[in-house]
## 1
Amino acid sequence: MENKRTKNDMYYPSDEIVSKATVKEYEKRYQESIKDREGFWAKEAETLDWYKRWDKVLDDSNKPFYKWFTGGKTNIIHNAIDRHLKTATRNKLALIWEGEPGDVRTFSYHALDREVSKFTNVLKAMGVKKGEIVTLYMPQIPELIIAMLACAKIGAVHSVVYGGFSVEALAERIEDANSRVLITADGGFRRGKPTRLKEIANEAMKRSPTIEVCITVRRTGKEDCFMETDRDFWWHELMGMPIASPYCETEVMDAEDTLFILYTSGTTGKPKGVVHTHGGYAVYTASTFRYVFDIKPEDRWWCAADPGWITGHSYIVYGPLICGATIMSYEGAPNHPYPNRWWSMIEKYGINILYTSPTAIRGLMRFGSSWVEKHNLDSLRLLGSVGEPINPEAWRWYYEVVGKNRCPIMDTWWQTETGGFMITPLPITPLKPGSATKPFFGNEMAVVDDKGNELPPGEEGTLVIKNPWPGMARNILNDPDRYIEKYWKAYEKQGWYLAGDSARMDEDGYFWIIGRMDDVLKVSGYRLGSAEIESALVSHPAVTEAAAIGLPDELRGNAIHAFVILKDKFSPGKELEKELKEHVVSEIGPIAKPQEIIFTDTLPKTRSGKIMRRVLKAQALGQDPGDITTLED
Ligand code: PRX
């Protein structure tokens, strides 16, 4: 049944969608949830299993270091796996995974438990202890999910470094986390070619010598890996040993114990290790997932992100597993070997819900609708989008061509730091293409000016979150001052969280996200700091100074343009331009490759020497640079 549409470009869900929806009425429930926030979250937490119930839902005695469900004893694995083993869910598929070459692996909840338990015993044999940070640098293979869950099960903290990052980015993250154990793979398949992760890991281990144990999955079998005696072990060999018993008790954790850290880019060159916990994060990811994607026992859910990003952590792994859902995961490129790869998998596996990024949608849209139309996508019921504002053109294509005017699009706004959806539709929400609509239950959000005055509808301002929520980041690893400074300082008086995005609210109370206000770039949905790209450039012997900005790009949202000042003995040229681009790739990864390198003699700076990137951006776009009174020259 097609959804209804009105003249003002609102898209209404069909009666069928509404009749099946878990939440039939938003406004009343929303009002109740913000009136009694703790009551709302207590009820949500009751849907999970606890070893011991919490004493206090929210402890705000040491703001902004909020604590949730204090006194509660749990482990996210207790909810994501253990409890399902006592019900029919044990025999249900937890994971359907397809490799890029077409190999398929599936795991029931029972089988997943066995694999996870085996790997926990391997980790224990390697001396991994509760609270220790284990770094994971892997392709999109089931072992990544298994390793994450295994860490959590024994109370170790996982730090997943996205497999697209390169040497310097990996080394820096290993060092900051002071990891002793690294889990990686020889590589993965991407566009028909094996990537070379172990080689990069080997280089990174040279730069950050904290790693004592490195466990490598043999995925491609293509690379002749260098394996260092006494440090390097093959995953399959360890898992085949008697130490890898398939039984392991789940460690009892405090609700506030750290589950994982995940590095994300900020405004300085140093990435932030965002800290999430066992208790509040479990409650938040499960509730948001259940309400927003309306998951049913018979559903097959596909979040086409990499498990190495927050989207994958929250909505491939933890939220869905807690809800006992069947997850689909795919290793490779969306257009390999042909642009119908995704559509053919939706048809083959009968996927009911697809959640992806605007950049992926735009990329597939480029190949034309006929690739989609070759396939029967009748199984789809809901669609989702995340990572950047979705432009109305891509929204409509997704809605009409992929969803056949039947499937509402859940455009979810959130961040690594929020742990889960903050502004999001529900299946019953009338949609406006390009708007993430309204706050999720329990959250009050606003668009304000510098002083914290709420702006009238239509006016662009700063997006703030006015309350704590269970999925919120608790800290930045090793840097509590930065946590306060970045998120809580700007509206200290009011106690509001600064999201770093600009937005506007319309007369219907719908939020429209405009983009980042700081020097954070969103390139193909990936979050990068200008400063990270600049420090990669400056690490090249020819460069003395650099400034990186993002300029609008039809496909990627933003493309990186880097302004570079060379050292005296170097001169600009095509060769050097190419070399610098490759240098950024080898330091950070392909996602950070500048589209343009512009050689220059000066950069606009403040009198205190800070590069004014916004002046460069305005200049490149032919716009007014705004206030330039602090400009030095
Ligand atoms: O700018 C917003 C954008 O992504 C940022 C967060 O990036 P990251 O921590 O990598 O998390 C991405 C996945 C949750 C936000 O500050 N963003 C995320 N979702 C949306 C979005 N912008 C517009 N619409 C969205 N739905």
## 2
Amino acid sequence: MTQELRTTDTRVDALFGVDTFSKQVMQKRLPKEVYKSLLKTIDHGEPLDPRIADIVAATMKDWAVERGATHFTHWFQPLTGLTAEKHDSLVSPDGMGGVIYNFSGADLTQGEPDASSFPSGGLRGTFEARGYTAWDPTSPAFLNRHGKAVTLCIPTGFVSWTGEALDTKIPLLRSMEALSKQALRILKIFGTDTGVTRVVTTLGPEQEYFLVDREMFYRRPDLVTCERTLFGARPPKGQQLEDHYFGAIPARVLAFMHEAEEELFRVGVPVKTRHNEVAPGQYEVAPLFETSHIASDHQMVLMEILRRVADRHGLKALLHEKPFAGVNGSGKHCNWSISTDMGVNLFDPQDDTHTNLQFLTFLCGVVRGVDLHADLIRASIAGAGNDHRLGANEAPPAIISMFLGEMLSDILVQVEQGLPKRTIKGGTIELGARSLPSIPRHSGDRNRTSPFAFTGNKFEFRAVGSTASVAWPTTVFNAVVAESLDFIATEVEKAAGNNPSPAKLQAAVLAVLKSVIKQHKRVIFDGDGYSPEWHKEAARRGLPHLRDSVEAFPVLKAKKTVDLFKKYGVLTKAEVESRYHIAVEKWVKQLVIESEMMISMARTMILPAALRHQAELGEAVNATEGAGVDCDDSVKALEGFVALVSTAREALVKLEAAAAHDHDDPMAHAHHIKAKVRPAMSVLRAAVDALENHVAADLWPLPTYRELLFLK
Ligand code: ADP
Ligand code: MG
């Protein structure tokens, strides 16, 4: 399921997908029978016929070699949240002065990377470090170009030898399967399943990121190591300048965008770059939606391409959730919907939505799922970077609620009361100026403050962090919705009985939806999610509020989570627990690195610069007094500065003491970091930022926010 890339741009037509082993390429090159058989796997999820692997491999190899490939790799997404590849040569010497190309069906379908270097969260004893990659024929292979090196990348899943998923893709595929099964039951109830073999989830993840000058980036050890500034005084006007930056995109940035777009087109990632900036130096790229596991693969490719192309333009792409304090952070808005394999979007409300019971059923499935598992959805986006973002006054709050908009909220109220009778029309927005036409207002209007919003014919999950792999939150979401569709289907089947009359079916559906709405409407909130009143109201409604990752992590291994994933075949108990362990360990590791980096920068860069400045101030006082001129002011300034230096030094000592504690148990360590290390980091940061505002610019050892954000 792919949104159409409608364009008159010949550049796109010429480039799109040239480096993907797409269906078109397969159709052209594979024997007809083989292509047909493969298509059954790709489009309908049927198991791969092992007999065709050799033919597909040979064809893929020829295609890749013609396009300059010398190596191939099984490309996968281990639980680090990154991608991994191990390159093998496609060519080898033939012993007669020439080369032969080796790439068999076995090479295509299975690989054995050294699994011990990837985290398994305890899934795999070190004595049995085996892990296998298995070809995912449903996601197109592509060529990765790095200068002259061209590598054939084969999307794969990564499993342990006992069959446990060691990656983010396999659970995503399983969750899609689970959702498909339950969604089909709903379609069957309404008699709309004719010709439908599967229901797929679609995903369009919008990526926000910052660009900074590369040379300045390398002069900031915090950016190099943590991708975020650990220090940095805010520029005088900060984001108030933001309007000024709309529109005027520097030439270098435009060149970067153009090239990144081209690279994405080549590998078949359908993007439309958005040239708007929310914060100074911030940009966004929005792909067109695709079936969710392909969108998720493409999202990983997109992040890599942004980084790689930025480098070539003397820039650095920062994907971190919060590279700069006091400046908007970055998210990854996950637009999500479900669609039949015939291309019907099941979240299209259509006209007269109040009569569209099937739509309302799917909608109530989401409402129930989000309410029952708001804590798990929150936990699925936990991470060190997102802690800086969620709940701050710029990003969705850490309380998971849903925005439905006036029209849908009104219909749900009607269902709760009986038979829905009306659909509020969007109306128009008056622009106030006579010369401008009034524009029709979409009834699912935007509410930027909601973490989870219905936006016309899809949901937008805005709380996902900008560095995150979208596979995991999507997996959680699919599972949560599958469970509720299962519940609703079962209840309706019970109430309606076999072959119900239309009237009986309608009554049964309405009764079930009514009770779902009654029980779960507390999660619906159309107001301002940033307001303090909402926090109070949410508490009154009993909605979970997991303020940070440390509070959220335990949900990942809660019994309720394990039961959900087990029941729908998405993750086993061991797989769930491994994900919990890896998430906690990753968080701790990131915070340990950040605190160590802070300490080192403060000790070896900041304090020495401050002392030089202090010495200059001291010399100035001496020289002035020596010349017989009264300089009480300068003495006061010196005293004030010395006090700032002492404050910073004390803060440094305190952070060192806090950071020296270690714990064997990662969760205990995480609690210690949250209680002691993080607060000490904030105090040190404040002290250093105060110094930055006083130290002579030529002595300050780090590029400032002004330089990083505004110089392009
Ligand atoms: P909007 O006007 O709401 O911003 P866009 O068409 O620009 O809508 O969509 C924003 C993002 O949502 C894009 O990435 C787009 O591909 C994605 N999107 C649109 N429809 C769907 C859908 N049915 N399923 C998943 N994502 C979708
Ligand atoms: Mg968006």
